[in-house]
Design a protein that fits this description.
single chain, 189 residues, alpha+beta, Immunoglobulin-like, 2 domains, five-stranded mixed sheet, 24% helix, elongated, binds dinuclear copper ion
């Protein structure tokens, strides 16, 4: 004998269908909100994906290679940009004061000599982790002269809260006058 759906079955399936649709719309709404947040953050704050992977031996940073003390600080490049090299260790940055020009492409190259540190320049989009064994890179530009703070923002031990440095943004012409002999610049006094 063929079964025909009773009117109660029919109502029941309609109610279930409506509930499913409501939940589906809610989920679509949440996904749309999250994607919207990602788009907003990436456009408004110029959030960048992690840089490509470059490795380095953290135990010999001070002995040879790119991150020896003489090579830290800001270097003027032949193409008119600058490269800033910085090392984080418990509990300070070297150099303690970074000097950068306005209106110039700036590339940061940083690493850590011991544990994970944070490299974050307040009021800018510069925000990366300094991980021992890896070179972190970040490209940016500074519009106006400024004195900025650069706190370590990854917990790195008992001295974490005291670990911070300064960034001084100075006029482009003034910077390149100082950079003329090719030495590494910083604002450490
Ligand atoms: Cu270094 Cu926190």
């Amino acid at each position: 004998m063929a079964t025909t759906p009773t009117s109660t079955d029919h109502d029941g399936s309609r109610v279930a269908e409506r509930a499913e649709l409501r939940w589906a719309l809610l989920v679509i709404g949440i996904v749309a909100l999250l994607v919207g947040m990602m788009v907003y953050m990436s456009l408004h704050w110029a959030t960048m994906p992690p840089s490509r992977v470059e490795t380095i031996d953290p135990t010999t940073l001070h002995l040879a290679g790119e991150f020896v003390e003489d090579n830290l600080g800001t270097a003027a490049e032949p193409d008119g940009s600058v490269t800033v090299r910085v090392v984080g260790n418990q509990y300070s940055f070297t150099p303690q004061c970074l000097l950068v020009p306005t209106d110039t492409p700036v590339k940061f190259r940083g690493t850590s000599a011991d544990v994970v540190h944070g490299f974050n320049i307040a009021k800018t989009n510069v925000n990366v982790m300094l991980v021992p064994g890896y070179i972190a890179t970040f490209k940016t530009k500074f519009k106006e002269p400024a004195d900025l703070v650069m706190p370590c923002h990854e917990f790195c031990g008992v001295g974490h809260a005291a670990m911070w440095a300064h960034v001084k943004v100075i006029d482009k012409a003034e910077f390149f006058k100082q950079a003329i002999n090719g030495r590494r610049l910083s604002c450490v006094k």
